[in-house]
Amino acid sequence: MAIIDSGERAPVSWYKRLGWLVVIWSGSVVGLGVVAGGLRMLMHAAGMSSH
To answer: How far is Cα 22 from Cα 36, in angstroms, rounded to an integer?
Structure first.
């Protein structure tokens, strides 16, 4: 006899959802900072500095 999964899941608590939001947002901010820092270093190495 086969068991049919109804697809229903227990609701996820709001603090876990908020936690994931903060983790993803923080990761994107850090990633953007890394890319910006890398571009700044490349531009400085190419002689494109403002001072």
So the answer is: 21
